Each structure stands twice: as C-alpha cells, then as structure tokens.
Amino acid sequence: MADFQERRALLGDENECSFAGRPEAKGPGRPIPAICDPGHLLHRVVVLMFMCFLGFGSYFCYDNPAALQTQVIQDLNLNTAKFMQLYAWYSWPNVILCFLGGFLIDRVFGIRLGTIIFSFFVCIGQVIFAAGAWGNRFWLMEVGRFVFGIGGESLAVAQNTYAVNWFKGKELNLVFGLQLSMARLGSTVNMNIMGWVYSEVASAVGSSGYTTLGISLMIAAGTCVFSLMCALVLAFLDKRAERILHKEQGKTGEVIKLTDVKDFSLALWLIFIICVFYYVAIFPFIGQGQVFFIEKFNFSPAQARAVNSIVYIISAPASPILGFIVDKTGRNVGWVFTTVIATLGAHMMLAFTFWNPWIAMSLLGLSYSLLACALWPMVAFVVPEHQLGTAYGFMQSIQNLGLAVIAIAVGLIVDLRGYLVLEVFFCACICIAMMAVVALYFVDYLKGGDLNRSAAARAKLQKETSPDSE
Predict the structure, then answer these.
(1) How far apart are CA 183 and CA 190, in angstroms?
(2) Cα Rg of the chain, angstroms
(3) 243-302 pLDDT per residue, tens
(4) CA angle 267-405-218, nearest 5°?
(5) CA atoms of 54 and 112, how far apart (whole Å)
(6) Staple 452 to which of 42, 140, 302, 333, CB 3.0 to 4.6 Å?
(7) Quick check: 407 and 303 in contact, CB under 8 A?
(8) Are the beta carbons of 415 and 422 closer than 8 angstroms?
(9) Could you read off the pLDDT of 386-439 as tens digits, one per residue?
C-alpha cells in the first residue's frame, strides 16, 4: 500500500498525464489511471507503440534506393555499380559500430540519450542523402548514406534494449516479433509508395529529374523525423518510469571482448559463414531487383516494385509465427537447411525460368523469415553467456562487411555480365551457405547434437542439468 501511495503521489505531482482529457484524480484511495501507470499493461502498450515506430523511419528509408532504382539511375546518370555503392556506404560504418553500439549505450550515452543520438544520425543522414540528390551531387548522397548507416544498426540495438527493459519476463518474445513486423512494414510501405510519391512530385514540379528525386527523398525523411519524435517521447516515458518505479536505466547487457574471438568454436564460425553467404543473396538482390523484373519479365515499374517488396510483405506477419514454430519444434539446423534449399530453388527459378516471379519471391520471403528465426538463436547454444555480446557483434560485423563488398560486386556483375550471371552468382553464394550447413550438422553431431535437438529434448536436458533438479 505504501508503494502504491508513493507511486500515486509521484504521478500526481507530475500533473502531465490525463485520462480522456481530464486532470488526474487526486486524493486518498483514488486509483491511478492505467494508461498513466508504468507498471500497468495498458501503459506498456502505449510504450510499445512508440517503441515499434522508433525504427520505422530507418527501415523505410534504408531501401529508398531500391524503391526508386530506375529514377535514381536515370536522373543521376548512374550505372549499376555506382548505384549499389549507396548500399555499400550504409554497411561500411557498421563493420565497426556493431561492436561499439552496445558499449556506447551502456557506458557512454545511456539508453535514452543514445537512442536520441542514433535517431538524429538516421534523420540527418537521410536529409544529406536527399540534399545530394536535389543538387545532383552523388558524392554527397554517399556521405548521407554513410551518416545514415552510423545511426541505423545502433538504433536497432537501442530498440531491443528498450524492449528488454520494459517487457523482460512478461511479453518479450511477442514484443520482438512485433518490432520485426513493424520494421518489415516500413520496408514494404517504402517499396510500394515511393514510386507514387515521385510521380506526384514530378507532376507538381512539371518534369522528372534530380530535383524531383531530391524532393521525393526529402519527403521520405519525414518518416525519420517521426521516429526521432518517438525517441524523444520514449526517453520521457522511460525517465518517468525510472523515477516512479525506482528502476535502473536499461542496458544492453552485452560485454564486448575482442579477445573472446580466439575462443570461438568451429560451429560458431560455420554459423557466421551461413549468415554472410545467405544474406548477401537477399539484400543486394532486393536492392537492384526492380530493374531485373522490368527487364526480364517486362513488368511496369509499379509491378516491379510490388513483386520486389513481397519478401518484406511476407516477413512482417510470418516472422512471429515461424518463430513460434521453431520454438515449439527445435531442430534449428534442420530448419536452416530447409530455408537454404528453398532459397536456392527460388533463385534458380528466377535465373532459369520465366515462371511468374511472384512464386519465387514468395518462397524467398518465407525462407528469409524462417532463417532469421532458426539461425540467430543458435549462437546462444554454442557460446557461453559472457561471450554472447562479442559473438553477436562479430556476426553482425562480418555480415555488414559481406554486404558492403557484395553490393559493389553485384553492381559490377550487372554492368559487365548481366542479370543471368548475377543470379548464378547468388546461387553460388547460397551453395556455399548450404555446404556450411551440412558441415555444421556433422560438427554438431560429433559434439552431441545440441543444435538440432527437438524442443522437448532441450527442455528435458535443461531440467536435468539445472541446479533445482538436484
């Protein structure tokens, strides 16, 4: 009762919260409106709403080049190699920042200030990117993407830290699924709306060109401003909850020690190989997919954008569902092998057939969603808890290194050899990932098969080895 009265008094003193437009009720025995109570589910739902929109602008603007591929190439007179550098410049800073993002949040800025700073980098990076297009300065666009990249990946770390801080032990798995779905929603909306935005701006300006492109990208920056506002609101709500509930500011919990790399097991290195060679066949393909669908399948730009976005459309609702299935069944290595085979089949369909690409892209969307649910959790099975931060940081780092290098390679392949050779290249990358999965299965089998246990077997083993069972 004393805790309740203290919390009620603190809430009443702030006088910033109202319910249905009325001042908060005061006086002994008056209940705190649930929407104002940081310990109540309704208030956490409000926080979750801002938390989900925190990364919306980042994911919306990340694939602006893909959504406007034909316009960017035509208006700025670029080849594909130059165009793909826009994705490479996003990835380069994250080769390093994947190690530093958690450290900066934990030790330097704190979760609230860190989130605002990373959101600001995303916002200012998109504005610089748009200004470069507006002034027909491609080097400035590259600078903008570099600045955008500084904030993008670290903002995702901050978003996850907020989620753990507010929902740990309650609805955390659901929250992570909802955040991922909102991220994919941002990518999907971008893919399907930016072409229309460009057309409307062109009609208003009177012609297409780099000025129209710059204005369109500046409009897209509005989503980053919105996400920055969400970061400010989250900081206020988190500070308020800290004062009322007497809790500590959230931390990532990651401990990064580069010396741990020498202790990584062969199984973990194989997981890294799978991660790199799988994702380089997904994101760079989507980055330049619009022109591929226009040239090979004679799609209109609108049709090409729609089919290019199907991976994200499927991922939004499928990720939480597939994650639940993997949780209930286990057999992570088996699921990863299934996704790699399905992805290889999708790329082979795109390369060697003229079947409706919606079939291959739908298969690619399901595979991409399932791999994220099955692959990333395996890291926790093969490294000690105190090395998890280093392992995940290194995994994201080499993933970004692979994406940066392959993005440049993809542009060169398209310019010099065409899209058929590009698809063969993607198939080769997936084959390397497949060989790594097979090797992982045998390495794991020789060590007891922990990675491919069923969920029931894992639960039984955990129960037998837990201290409480003795």
Answers:
(1) 11
(2) 24
(3) 877 766 555 555 556 677 777 899 999 999 999 999 999 999 999 899 999 999 999 988
(4) 120
(5) 12
(6) 333
(7) no
(8) no
(9) 777 678 778 888 999 999 999 999 999 999 999 999 999 999 999 999 999 999
